[in-house]
Design brief:
The protein is α/β, with parallel strands linked by helices and 532 residues long. 32% of the residues lie in helices and 16% in strands. The strands form 5 sheets. Strands 1, 2, 3, 4, 5, 6, 17 and 18 form an 8-stranded mixed sheet that branches. The chain has a 5-stranded parallel sheet with strand order 7-16-8-9-12, with helices on one face. Helix 1 runs parallel beside helix 15, helix 10 runs antiparallel to helix 11 and helix 15 packs parallel to helix 17. The radius of gyration is 23 Å and the shape is globular. The two termini are 14 Å apart. The structure holds ligand NA7. Ligand NA7 binds next to helix 5.
């Protein structure tokens, strides 16, 4: 007998739904959450300007038609506080609080073959056993601060955007340095610039950013949309990105250039990243097609930023559009026209050190009152490796994945029986509307456990062969695209020493779902089951 059927690690979008889904299937479950509130990514990333780059109507649970109808989003793109309110509302509505233990960090989990169970340990010294564990730790949760000489000596405060002080930060009149110009840096920069005395943006790599055109969601629009929400969700499930995007269905290179420009202009005016990347079939597979959209975007930067030298520095080069996460902002580029903002090129003159009064590059010194790091995450594996997970014969997950993460269907790993990795490596997670991907994984795991129980099986584990074949399919699909061609967190390039492997499935959410369903229908093909 185990203490529980399932331990869920984390209470963000995936952990919250996992608790609900598993409980509804009659399982005993507890989620452990390190934060003192639920929400995961949306709990921790409370920096000013934090906003999702997927539209509210998509970035929300689809499992409950009632929830879908009664919740009302206020804006086209949801801001962090509203997403957090939504998740708390979900926990209230489905009475999930008794099953979520907050302020409790899971430190390890080890598999015991004799009892076919996991022992899960927590930082407060607790331990309990469960037949299954489901990691719901998020793909972007283990934040990283660059190892800069002298950072300890800095006299002002410094922050990472993913651990923002709850009480907020007052930058009024201060000289602020911002390191990092990914999605996060691009969102926080205009907020700091609006109040700071001066903002220095330290840019190592320029990023492509398209407008959001964020606006309030009008009542009439919402009513009309909600009348067809079910059909819309059905389309989303079958779609490539987990969001129905209308593309031309044709390659850009076969189109007259003036038609291409007209379409891009219309999409630029409408806002949003997915409509751009989904506009033509060859944008993410042909460098020549991608060059056209890249130049279109550089032209928009040049027409927005008044200083031509600054504009050129902001123009991304050397990697395809979309191979790093396409950023979204309505005011990032225009911010550089403010007299209190300057762009510092740390590609040509890297940061050398931090000193008590500021930051030194190889060419200049910058006097600063505060420093902000928007320097990203040890993505996909960081939060899993932060725990001491040990599978068959005590094998540490960190060793099993030392040369690259691998999971069959992106949801279960050879050597780690009865462990399910929600949105794990090998799944489409970060290349999709992740809420939909989370629901699909959680439901698949719920059904798998029900199938095992119905047959009296106690363990399930993917075979090494099935896992190898799946990961080689993942690579093959990725290598036919431009995605692996940038130094990004998608390939682990942002973490010194991390193996450079592209582990996300970019074959589309619809086909991926079909594959997972087919595996289940074939009696969990590629898995070994045992017991009873
Ligand atoms: P990202 O996208 O990983 O961006 C991190 C930024 O920080 C990026 O501009 C990096 O430059 C920069 N960075 C990282 N380390 C350093 C060092 N050591 N020195 C200088 N600059 C550095 O993280 P975000 O938080 O913006 O976004 C993560 C995801 O959240 C995003 O993709 C969305 O899915 C939501 P680099 O490009 O590596 O040269």
């Amino acid at each position: 007998m185990t203490d529980l059927d399932v331990v869920v690690v984390g209470a963000g979008f995936s952990g919250i739904y996992a608790v609900h889904a598993f409980r509804s299937a009659g399982l005993t479950v507890r989620a452990f959450e390190a934060g003192d509130g639920i929400g995961g990514t949306w709990f921790w990333n409370s920096y000013p300007g934090a906003r999702c780059d997927v539209e509210s109507k998509d970035y929300s649970y689809s499992f409950s038609p009632e929830l879908e109808q009664e919740w009302s989003w206020s804006e086209r793109y949801p801001a962090q506080p509203e997403i957090l309110r939504y998740l708390n509302y979900v926990a209230d509505k489905f009475a999930l609080w008794p099953y979520i233990q907050r302020s409790t960090r899971v430190t390890g989990a080890s598999w015991d073959a004799a009892t076919a169970s996991w022992t899960v340990t927590t930082a407060d010294g607790g331990a309990l056993t469960a037949r299954y564990i489901a990691t719901a730790v998020g793909c972007l949760s283990e934040f990283q601060v660059p190892d800069l000489p002298g950072l300890d000596s800095f006299e002002g405060p410094w922050y990472h955007t993913s651990r923002w002080p709850r009480a907020g930060v007052d930058f009024a009149g201060q000289r602020v340095g911002l390191v990092g110009t990914g999605s996060t840096g691009i969102q926080i920069a205009p907020e700091i610039a609006a109040v700071a005395g001066h903002l220095h943006v330290f840019q190592r790599t320029a990023n492509f950013a398209v407008p959001n055109r964020n606006r309030p969601w009008l009542d009439a629009e919402e009513r009309e949309f909600k009348s067809r929400y079910r059909q819309y969700r059905a389309q989303a499930r079958e779609s490539f990105l987990g969001v129905p995007v209308t593309g031309t269905g044709r390659p850009l290179l076969s189109e007259p250039p003036e038609d291409v420009q007209r379409l891009f202009t219309a999409r630029w005016q409408a806002g949003g990243g997915m409509p751009f990347l989904g506009a033509y079939t060859d944008l993410l597979v042909s460098q020549a097609a991608n060059d056209v959209v890249a130049e279109f975007m550089r032209d928009r930067i040049r027409e927005t930023v008044l200083d031509p030298e600054v504009a050129e520095l902001l123009c991304p080069r050397g990697y395809p559009v979309g191979a790093k996460r396409l950023c979204q902002s309505d005011d990032y580029y225009a911010m550089f026209n403010r007299p209190n903002v300057s762009l510092v090129d740390i590609r040509s003159a890297p940061i050398e050190s931090v000193y008590p009064g500021g930051l030194k590059t190889t060419s200049d010194s910058y006097e600063l009152d505060a420093l902000v790091f928007a320097t990203g995450f040890d993505a996909l594996t960081g939060a899993l490796f932060a725990m001491d997970i040990r599978g068959v014969a005590g094998l540490p997950l960190r060793s099993a994945w030392a040369t690259g993460a691998a999971a069959y269907l992106g949801v279960a790993a050879a050597g780690f029986p009865n462990m399910f990795v929600i949105t794990g490596p090998g799944s489409p997670a970060v290349f999709s509307n992740v809420v939909l991907s989370i629901e699909q994984h959680v439901e698949w795991v719920r059904d798998c456990i029900a199938w095992l129980r119905a047959r009296g099986h106690t363990t399930i584990e993917p075979t090494a062969d099935a896992q190898r074949a799946w990961m080689s399919h993942v690579s093959e699909v990725a290598n036919a695209t431009l995605f692996p061609k940038a130094d990004s967190w998608y390939v682990g390039a942002n973490i010194p020493g991390k193996p450079r492997v592209f582990t996300s499935y970019v074959g589309g959410c619809g086909p991926y779902r079909a594959k997972c369903d087919a595996v289940a229908a074939a009696g969990y093909e590629g898995f070994r089951v045992a017991g009873a």
